[in-house]
Amino acid sequence: MTRAAGTEALLEEAERLEVEAAARSWAPYPEYRATGLHWLEQVPAHWRLQKLKHAARIQFSNVDKKSEDGEQPVCLCNYVDVYYHDRITSDIEFMEATALPREVAKFQLMLGDVLVTKDSEDPHDICVPAVVAEDLPGVLCGYHLAQIRPIPGDAYGPYLSYALASSGIRDQFRMRANGITRFGLSQDDICSSLVCLPPLPEQQTIAAFLDRKTRQIDELIEKKRRLIDLLQEKRTALISHAVTKGLNPDAPMKPSGIDWLGDVPEHWNIERLKALFTNLNHRRVPISAEIRGGMSKAYPYYGASGIIDYVEDYIFDEPLLLVAEDGANLLSRSTPLAFVASGQYWVNNHAHILRPRVGPLSFWESLLQLAPLEPLVTGSAQPKLTKENLGTLPLPVPPLDEQQQIGQAIDSIRKRYDGVIGAVGQGLEQVKEYRQSLISDAVTGKIDVREEVPS
User: Given a cut of 50, is residue 261 above it in pLDDT?
Assistant: First the structure.
C-alpha cells in the first residue's frame, strides 16, 4: 500500500469509528434523587454520595528518589508514570531507589490501588488518577502522589479511578488546590471530596463498560494522531522537494557540492546567504521588561522562537525572516530556526532579521528550515550563531521566476494540507471531549449502562 493510500484508509477508518461513537446513546436511570449540589443536581436513587475517606484508605507518600546505604532496593512509581498512564502495570520502567522496611510495607502497590497526582504547576493537572492493574511487589508509591486503597466490599479501584477523572468530581480538587507557582492538595482535601458510589457489582459493571469503550475511543484517537503525523510528513516532503529540486521532474540535475542538498537542477546557482539577504540586525531592540511594562500601546515582541511579549511603538511593518541567534534550539531544533514575522513588531536580540533581496518569503523560509545550521554554531553551554557564520551558509538559488512559482506551489501545498490537518485535529478534539463526557456521564449516573456488559 502506498503512503497516500495508507493515509486515505486511516482517514476512512477514523471517520467510520467516529460516526459509530457519536451515533450511540444510552438511556438514563429510571429514578433519581436530588443531591443539593450545584455541580451534580441528582444521582440514581439507589446510589450513595459520600466522602472518599469513607470508601478508601488515603495516604500521601514520603518515599523520595534517593538511594541510601542500608535501605532496601525498591522501584518507585512516580508522578510521570501516573500522569501518562491510565493503568499502572509491570510494563512501565519504574525508577530504582531504596526505602526503609516500614515504607515498603506501607506504600507497596497492590491490585486495585488508585494513585493520583497531589500537586502540579497547573491546577488542571491536579488529581490525575491511574489504577494499579496488578499486584506489584517491590514497587512503591512515590513522592508527589497520593495512594488511595479502596475498602474491600465497598469500593472498586477501577471505578474510583474513572470517577476521579470525571468532570464535576475532579473539579472539586481544582477548586481546592492552593498555590501560586505550584498548586497542591492537602490530605484532607482528597479525603473530604465527594464521590458517587453505586453498589459494588454496579461499580464493576460501569468500570468494565468504560474499559471497553475507552479502549475503542483511544484506538480512534491514535488513528487520528497517526493521520495528522502522516499528513504533516507529506506536506513537509512536498515542500522540501520543491525548494531543493524544483517543480520540473524532468529537469537535468547537477551535483550541488553541498552534503544536505545533493543534486539540484542544472540551471540553479549556489550562493552564500550574505549575498541573498539584507541583514537588519542593527534594528533589533532588546527592551527591558520594566520599560515594556509601562507602555500603553501593544505590538508583538519577537525573539527566535515566536512572540515573547508585547510592547508599544513600531519598528517593522513588512514580513521578514527571523533566524535564531542563540539558545539551545540551535542545537536541538526544538523550535523553528526560521519563520516569517508579519505585521508591526519589535525584534529582540535573540534573532537575526533577514530581508530577501529578491524572491518570495515562503521559498526562503522553507529553504532555511531545511538548512543545517548546527555546523555554523559556536559554543555548547551557550550556543550562538553569529551574523558572520550565518552569512557563509550556501543555498540553492533558482531563477527569480522559478522562485515565485515555487513560492506559489508552497502556498498551495500549505493551504491544501493545513485544511485537512485542521479538520482532522478538530475531529480529534471532539473525540477526546466525547471520551471525557462518556466517563463523566457513567460515573455520575446520567446514563444507565448496566445492560451493556454481559453477566
Answer: yes
Q: Model pTM greater than 0.90? A: no
Measured distance CA(129)–CA(324) in Å, rounded? 40
Mean pLDDT throughout 313-325? Answer: 72
Calculate the CA dihedral of residues 61, 66, 67, 68 and round it to 10 degrees: -90
pLDDT band for 296, please (50, 70, 90 cuts): very low
- pLDDT of 379: 83
Q: How far is CA 408 from CA 153, 232, 266, 403, 412, in A?
A: 68, 19, 22, 9, 6
Give the position of cell 533566524: 323
Rounded CA Rg of the chain: 29
Which position has the higher pLDDT, 252 or 10? Answer: 252
What is the C-alpha to C-alpha distance for residues 127 and 172, in angstroms, rounded to an integer? 10
Residue 401: what are its φ and ψ, rounded to 5°? -65, -35
What mean pLDDT, rounded, does the chain reach?
Answer: 86
pLDDT digits (tens, 9 = 90+) for 91-136: 999 999 999 999 999 999 999 999 999 887 777 778 899 999 999 9
Taking the C-alpha atoms of residue 191 and residue 362, their distance in angstroms, rounded to an integer, is: 57
Question: pLDDT, tens digit, for every residue of 429-448?
Answer: 988 999 999 999 999 999 99
